[in-house]
What we know:
- By secondary structure, this protein is an alpha/beta fold.
- The chain folds into 2 domains: 173 residues, NAD(P)-binding Rossmann-like Domain (Rossmann fold, 3-Layer(aba) Sandwich); 240 residues.
- The protein contains 18 helices and 8 strands.
- It has an 8-stranded mixed beta sheet, with helices on both faces.
- Helix 14 packs antiparallel against helix 16.
- The protein is elongated.
- It starts with a helix and ends in an 11-residue tail after the last helix.
- The site of NADP nicotinamide-adenine-dinucleotide phosphate (NAP) has 20 residues, from helix 2.
Amino acid sequence: xxxxxxxxxxxxxxxxxxxxxxxxxxxxxxxxxxxxxxxxxxxxxxxxxxxxxxxxxxxxxxxxxxxxxxxxxxxxxxxxxxxxxxxxxxxxxxxxxxxxxxxxxxxxxxxxxxxxxxxxxxxxxxxxxxxxxxxxxxxxxxxxxxxxxxxxxxxxxxxxxxxxxxxxxxxxxxxxxxxxxxxxxxxxxxxxxxxxxxxxxxxxxxxxxxxxxxxxxxxxxxxxxxxxxxxxxxxxxxxxxxxxxxxxxxxxxxxxxxxxxxxxxxxxxxxxxxxxxxxxxxxxxxxxxxxxxxxxxxxxxxxxxxxxxxxxxxxxxxxxxxxxxxxxxxxxxxxxxxxxxxxxxxxxxxxxxxxxxxxxxxxxxxxxxxxxxxxxxxxxxxxxxxxxxxxxxxxxxxxxxxxxxxxxxxxxxxxxxxxxxxxxxxxxxxxxxxxxxxxxxxxxxxxxxxxxxxxxxxxxx
Length: 461
Ligand code: NAP
């Protein structure tokens, strides 16, 4: 048995409560927070520092000494120092030989260096066993114990025993280790804390683009057009009327976009006759952000509901209602109840309410706390079957509301179609294609392809 494996064996979890000394290089924010947590968990801690003077900031019970002295006291060393200061470690190469070095460093930019910090550390100290861990945990959360949202610690390394050792410490600290494989994974792990809502970028940029387009479209047709041709000032429409048109339109388009990639994927799989060929990159990325697209759609739908609730108290609406009543009185003529209109109005409201209810249900089931408690089949049932039902109800809600306007020539101001027409293009296309895909002549081969069958097997014997 060589010296290195003895070091590791010595640190393996024991049945007694006595734990082996752990060394931390660097007495900065992270080093101190980690030291504090390790001491709480029963580990003797030594700090390796440029200054051996102890201060009140150093966790009670820890010793501070030179890097060389501290390294000799432990088989595992956490490097709580920024990458740009790693050079001095080469002078300690002999002492660090066979030790487990835990690289916890992060960068300030994604892919800042050609190699990951952990690989760089392994190059600087080739005799050491480098493990990447803890970089996604913040010093503040570690010290204050508020780790509910970030209990996971991503761990990777080439030496299995060294990695196991670090994972044991992670568990003893009350955290959950996630083995990410070899040190090659370090680059990706180092990029995690730098990512800013990666899955939200596309849905948010798309919604911003569509909101801008529809805002100017509605502004032109609802405010500028009546001003130009009738000298009427409807500029106040900007506050409620226009947003209350944009919100449902965007909610429906984005909901359609949640289901469109699934339909496209089905067409591609049917065309190729196999599921074993990768989808184009854009489709893969689109599929990955469907949940975010759905949640943005739900946000628009919720705002639409709120806007709709205030309609009766709007000054313009109250004026229009009283104006109509007064003109009926003046003309001594009561407008009879139009049952068709009453049906249309009640139907579109009912479809909207049911659609919104299912939309909220979809949003709730996409929350990790809920989705973790249902099995895969239940999750698919809700997201696919109930999802399509939501799309049908919301599309019908818009069709019943806007349908009659599509046939009226006066709705085509400046030869432009009514804005609601745009919202129906994607959902209607998705629903039509989905309907066609249900036919057994397409559904059967698609199901077989998804179960692994290939029309022209690539690797046939
Ligand atoms: P910090 O507060 O700036 O501390 C860094 C420590 O490195 C210093 O206290 C110093 O310790 C040592 N150091 C500085 N210059 C040095 C040099 N030229 N040679 C040798 N040692 C030097 O930084 P930190 O926030 O603790 O972060 C440390 C590492 O942890 C970084 O790589 C960071 O990316 C990573 N990290 C930090 C957090 C966090 O929340 N802070 C979270 C995850 C990962 P001595 O004075 O004792 O020598």
